[in-house]
Amino acid sequence: MNLKKLAGKIALVTGGSRGAGRGIAIELGKAGATVYVTGRSVRGATTNGFPGSVDDTVEEIVKQGGEAYACRCDHTRDGDTQAVVERIRQERGSLHILVNNVWGLHDLEVGLQSKPFWEYPLDMWDAMFQGGVRAQIATSHYAIPLMLESGSGLIVHTTFWDHDKYLGTFFYDLAKNAINRTVFGLSRDLKDTQLTAVAVSPGWMRTELVLQSFNTDEAHWQEVEALRQTESTHYIGQAVAALAEDGDVRLKHGQVLQVGKLALEYGFTDTDGRVVPPFEV
User: Fold this and answer.
1) Mean pLDDT in residue range 177-200
2) Structurally, how many domains does the chain consist of?
3) Residue 212 sits in which domain range?
4) pLDDT > 50? residue 1
C-alpha cells in the first residue's frame, strides 16, 4: 500500500481523542491525508478525565510526518459541528473523507450487560442516539455539501454488526442498527453523486479505556489472557485508509463492512502482524 496515496486529500475524523477515532486519524495521516480531528477532550481537560485528547492525536500524526489539526467540538451542539466544517471550507476549500465516529456512551458510567432495557436508565438513549446516531447524522448534514463541491469522497460510519445478530443490549442494538440503516439511506440519497457511504465494523478493540479496565497498556496487553483476541485501534484505521485509497470503493456503497474481512481483501495486518478475523457475537 502506497503510504502517501492520500496526499492532497482532506479528512475529518470525529471523536478522535481516543479509541477507534484516534487509530483512524493516525492511519489516515500516515497515508498522506491532512486530518482534522474533533472531540471534546483537549490536553489538560479531557471528558470524564479519560486518557487521550485531540491534541495528543494530532501530535502523534505530526510526529509521524503527517499534517493534522485539533478541533475542540461537541457534536451534540450543531453550532460546534457547523463551525468545524466551515473552518475546513475556509482553510482548505474541500473535504474528501468524513469519518463519523463520535459516540456518547462513555458519558455514562454504565457497563453493557445482557439485561432487560427497563433495568437501564433512559439516559442510555440520549448517550447513544443524541451523542451517537444524531451527532453522526448532523456531521454529515453539514459536511456533505462541501464534499459534493469537492467532486468525490468517502463517508465512513463506525458501527458494530454481525450479520443481523442481536447485539446483546437493547439500546446498543438499536443504535448500531440505526447507524447501519443510516448508511443504507445515504446510499440512496447519494446514488447520483460520486460520494460513497459505508459503515465499518471492528472487533473488540484495545481502546485506552479497555486497557485501563484490565490494568494494562498497549505494551503489555498480551500478558492478559482475556485480551488475546482483541485488535488495536490501528486495525480499523488501516481499514479506513485502505477504503479511502481504493479507486473502486464505489462498489461498496451502502454496505456494512467488517474490518477482519477488509484485512484479507486489502492485505494489511494488525500492529502485531496478525490478521484478526471478524468478531462474532
Assistant:
1) 96
2) 1
3) 10-266
4) no
